[in-house]
Amino acid sequence: MYIESLSLKNYRNYEELFIEFENKVNVILGENAQGKTNVMESIYVLAMAKSHRTSNDKELIRWDEEYAKIEGRVQKQYSSLPLQLVISKKGKKARLNHIEQQKLSQYVGNMNVVMFAPEDLNLVKGSPQVRRRFIDMEIGQISPIYLHDMSQYQKILQQRNHYLKMLQIKKQTDQTMLEILTEQFIQVAVKIIAKRFEFLHLLAKWAGPIHKGISRGLETLEINYKPSVEVLEEQELSKMVTCFEEKFGKVKTREIERGTTLFGPHRDDLLFFVNGRDVQTFGSQGQQRTTALSVKLAEIELIQAEIGEYPILLLDDVLSELDDYRQSHLLNTIQGKVQTFVTTTSVDGIDHQTLKEASTFQVSSGIIQKVD
Ligand SMILES: Nc1ncnc2c1ncn2[C@@H]1O[C@H](COP(=O)(O)OP(=O)(O)OP(=O)(O)O)[C@@H](O)[C@H]1O
């Protein structure tokens, strides 16, 4: 798939913008703080209804304005699909094919993107929260059911935490409500974990050979899910439910003392191993970077395998940071099959042949012009 056109209104430093793109490499060139990342972010937000940089949607609205609007037309195998997202202080409204969607979970997934930005190194180095966000966003792109389950999970988790807080303060003896909430919590939690296992399994299958290629055959990459309740990938859901029930039985007093839910998908993590060692702890900067790159390239293949089309690739400020070998590995992977956006302050670090075949756009103070 590829994005044919993008139009912005009051989006960050863009008052008004309309651009058309071709299905190839598009280079967005400009000095610092001109609006390169903002364009990439707007494409990402159009697809995911969420930014990769902030969870506060209001930041996306141009200062002193009431709303921001992103519109785009995506060319898929058989059709051209118009998408629209309006972000106001009251919330978000999404339209697909001009029809307003009641739920964002029905909207997300119609346009697929993979973003690779400098902060993606945090995928390896950062906190478990960063990795959970990654896994949730990525599964959400290919599974609307997962997005639905996640929003259910968040609601039940909040209610359960609220109730545990009440028990903590009031020292009530009647715990019937806690039992009901725990049962509901477990039912959704195991579905989420099973889906995460499945996704990581697929991701690892693609990432392994890619990582081997980038490391010139020297390194193996493994990706493992680390659940906070000891469940196994091959377990049936009913067995996972039993593990959870046992765990919650054991930690009930502690949970009431603390007034919060101590176990579940919101406390899980994933681990990356290179040659059998945890990259977060033992990996060099280069190995961590290669791991993040392998994971991103694997996502491209995974989405193609699941959806039947390649996603749009957004490379924000990373291409010129990669050494020649990694850059050419990346460019060979996407060659001719993935619409790619690249931001850079200078074309010097970018492969000549790629530049020759690419469309280039110059950005200056929120205005973009195609360079002939
Ligand atoms: N909500 C907003 N309203 C108006 N302007 C904004 C808003 N949010 C950010 N900006 C402005 O957008 C500009 C930053 O744009 P962006 O992050 O896209 O820069 P960039 O070209 O990618 O720069 P760099 O090369 O430094 O990464 C800054 O000048 C910033 O002040």
TrEMBL record:
UniProt organism field: Neobacillus rhizophilus
Keyword check for DNA-binding: yes
UniProt keyword list: ATP-binding, Cytoplasm, DNA damage, DNA repair, DNA replication, DNA-binding, Nucleotide-binding, SOS response
One protein family per Pfam: SMC_N
Domain of life: Bacteria
Subcellular location field: Cytoplasm
Family of the protein in this entry: Belongs to the RecF family.
Primary site of residence: cytoplasm
A Gene Ontology molecular function term of the record: ATP binding
Keyword Iron-sulfur: no
Protein's name according to its UniProt entry: DNA replication and repair protein RecF
Function: The RecF protein is involved in DNA metabolism; it is required for DNA replication and normal SOS inducibility. RecF binds preferentially to single-stranded, linear DNA. It also seems to bind ATP.
InterPro entries linked: DNA-binding_RecF (IPR001238), DNA-binding_RecF_CS (IPR018078), P-loop_NTPase (IPR027417), RecF/RecN/SMC_N (IPR003395), RecF_2 (IPR042174)
Gene Ontology CC: one annotated term: cytoplasm
PANTHER family reported in the protein's UniProt record: DNA REPLICATION AND REPAIR PROTEIN RECF
Gene3D superfamilies in the record: P-loop containing nucleotide triphosphate hydrolases, RecF/RecN/SMC, N-terminal domain
Domain (RecF/RecN/SMC N-terminal) ranges: 2-346
